Each structure stands twice: as structure tokens, then as C-alpha cells.
Amino acid sequence: MSEPGAPTSSARSAFPRQGGPLAPVDSPPLDADGTVVVVGASLAGLRAAEEVRRRGHRGPVVVVGEERHDPYDRPPLSKQVLAGTWDVERIRHHAPEALGELGIELLLGRRAVALDLDGRAVELDGGHRYPFDGLVVATGASPRRLPDTEGLAAVHVLRTLDDCVAIRRDLLAAGPGGHLVVVGSGFIGSEVASTAHALGARVTVVEALATPLAGALGVEMGRACAGLHTDAGVDLRTGVGVDRIAPAERSGAGPPGRSAASSPVGVHLADGSVLEADVVVVGIGVTPATEWLDGSGLELADGVRVTSRLFAAPGVVAAGDVARWPLPSAGGEVRIEHWTNAAEGGVAAGRNLVAGSAAAEPYEPVLFFWSDQYGTKIQLVGHPDPTDEAVVVDGAIDDRRFVALYRRGDRVSAALALSRPRQLMQFRPLVAAGASFDEALALARH
To answer: 257 in the Ramachandran plot: left (φ > 0), alpha (ψ -120 to 50) or beta?
Structure first.
């Protein structure tokens, strides 16, 4: 699953080729008694810190997190927590004492503002410098916002627990039949739409692209996923952007049960229409959180550029949404916003930091992602290009229950399934091996 805030949870931004390959990084093994600083207290950062300890590191391990909450899992924010079926305790990564038992120190509510690479120190807000022998950059990404919406209380993004709480509060204030407008039909926006629909909201999804998710899944499979909205009776408007969002005067009393506490806004679309909304959630993508690294000497290009072993500089690794690394199976450099990439990449970063570059292993995961929408589970194995041919090999698109294989040349590049988890997983080894498309077809027909 992607972290909330991602435009499409299979982000695949390609590095400009004129930048050239990243130079090799020669990083010695980590001093077993040295200090490790992890900047970012979400999944990738925690997994890296845990792996450093698992590899026998004896020195201090400090995890710096900008949020004041104890570390938590983000995927349920757009689903179970927003729906009110899970409480906050259920999404904690660890009980606080568990990290203490591992000897991992948490510095919460603190923001990294600069990196002094030569001086081997991270500068935090308030002027504090934290020296390190090994550094993990896991600052994730920040959601993009629409211009001139910062002061509108009804307009939200979804990345943090506080964001989720605010959206749920406003949905409940609007009451049954309250109108939610979701700007952007990526996976996170679609999950919010699905959850709000189940809560009884009237939902409109606005997408600038002609076909939702076409950049991630291709046009045909994007249409198949878009059908989940229309099947549920959600108003899906495609091929139209948002010009502006402004306060709106309520016309009439509105549906029965709507709370007077809601503050409507007008969502002005590029086609001239205006949607009156009680709540707006903007899901138009994220930006890697690298501002604090400007001028640090690390290579920044839509993320922190790292080697195949996740090194950005000697003694410095990066993982999760913020890291851009070369992945041969994807045909170039990628930056991935999947939950599984944060988990597996964090482990790989911690392991390689301790081992040093000479003994480190390339990070070559088999990418996997899932999303739950309107009672349907969407799962993807691999990393399809939008130009890959998609061939349905099991089930039917119209039934919203199928498996599709992606063909790139004579190879299978990925597999997508709607409500076919068992059938999908049989193709994972073939995707991992870069098997021929004919071999994958033979398995499907077996």
C-alpha cells in the first residue's frame, strides 16, 4: 500500500537522463559504537533503525520525527481510521517501550532543517546539532496543495494522522448526504472517496486526466479501476481540472441532517461548472521532502539520488518515498511510494549502512502494492509502464474480478488483479524472474 498523500500509489517518476548515473559511493562499515541518526519516524525510518540494531550495532540510534505522535502506520488513514472502525492505538508501529527495549531513542516533534555533510551533523529546528557516524534519510514526502487553499478550513490533504482526524471531523459535521469533493483520482483519493461513500456522504471525484490512473496502470486498466467509482454511484468527472476553490454561500437548506457547523466551499472547475462542497480532499500528488537537504552536497532530483545499494554519500543512506535508486527491472531510476517499498527499503538501508558499500547488497525488490476500494481489493505486482500491453488472463473486467498481465516486448513486466489475490500471487515469481510472456500465459492457462 502507498503512504497517504501519494498521487498514484505506484509513482514511477523517471530521472532526467541528462543527469547521468550517480557516481559510486565508497562507504566504510559503520563503527559499531558510532551514533546513527535516522531522520524520519515513519515506516522506512523505523525499519532502518530496527535493522541497524538487528545487525549488532551497539552505539546510539536516534530517530527524529517531525510529528508529535508516536510512530504509526499510514495506510489505514484513508480507510479504517477515517471510517472510525479502528482507533489510533491499532495503527501504532510499536508500543513506546518496545523501541526503548531496542535502545532506539525517539525525538518527536523535531524537524531537520539542514545537513552538514562535512561536519557529520544534522541540524534540527531550534538550533540543535546532532552529530552522526551513520545517517538514514527517510523524510518521505509532502502532499501538494492547490493554490490559495491554505486558509480554507474545509479543504484538506491526507498525509498525517492529524489530517485524517480533521477530514473525519468535517465529514461527520456535514452529516448524511454531505458533499465531499475529491480532487485527484489516484489511489489515496479513491480510497478516501470509497470510505466517505460508505459513511453516507455524497461524493464527487474530479480528475484532470481523461482516464484515471492511466499513468500508473495504462488506459485500459485505468478505466477498469475508474469503473469502481461509477459502479458505486459516485460522480466521477474526468478530463477537467480545478481552477480555484473559494468560500461559497449555501443555496437552500440542503439535505436533511446536514450540520450547520459545516462551512461550504465552491470548487470551480475548468469547464465553468461549480461544485458546492462541505469537504474537499486534495490528492494531486506529493513532493519528496528534501528541502532540508538543499546545499548539503547530496544529489537531489525528485528525491535523494542513491546508488543501487541506497548510498547517497559515505555513511549516508536513504529509503522510502524520498529515495530515488536504479532498478534494472524498471529500466531506470525510480522513486516508489509503496508501503512495501518503505518497509523493505528501510531494512535494506539499515543493513547496508552497517555493512558498508563493499559488502552491501543491491536493493532490487519485487514491487507490490494494494488498495481497497468499494469492497474491491486492487493488487499490483511489478512495475508496469503505461505503454505496456495489458492482457486479461483470468476473469472479466466488467465483473471487476480479473487478473491482467503486462507485456513489455517478450517479457511479463507486471500483473494486476481486482479481487483475485490468490490468482495474482502465482505470477509473482515470474515477474521477479523477468520471465517470458509466453511462460506467464502458459501458467494462466494451466
So the answer is: left
Give the distance, in angstroms, between the CA of residue 137 and the centroid of all CA atoms in the same chain: 16
Instruction: Report how far residue 122's alpha carbon sits from residue 188's, in angstroms, rounded to the nearest whole number.
Output: 32
The class of domain 17-142+286-355 in CATH terms is alpha beta
Kindly report, as residue ranges, where domains of CATH 3.50.50.60 are found in the chain.
17-142+286-355, 155-282
- Give the CATH fold of the 155-282 domain: FAD/NAD(P)-binding domain (3.50.50)
Alpha-carbon distance 381 to 403, whole Å?
11
The dihedral built from the CA positions of residue 170, 175, 180 and 185, taken in this order, carries a sign that is positive
**Contacting residues for 72 by C-beta, under 8 A, at least 6 apart:** 88, 91, 92, 93, 161
Taking only the tens place, the pLDDT of each residue in 111-167 is 999 999 999 999 999 989 999 999 999 999 999 999 999 989 999 999 999 999 999
Give the pTM: 0.92
Q: Contact, 78 vs 189, CB < 8 A?
A: no
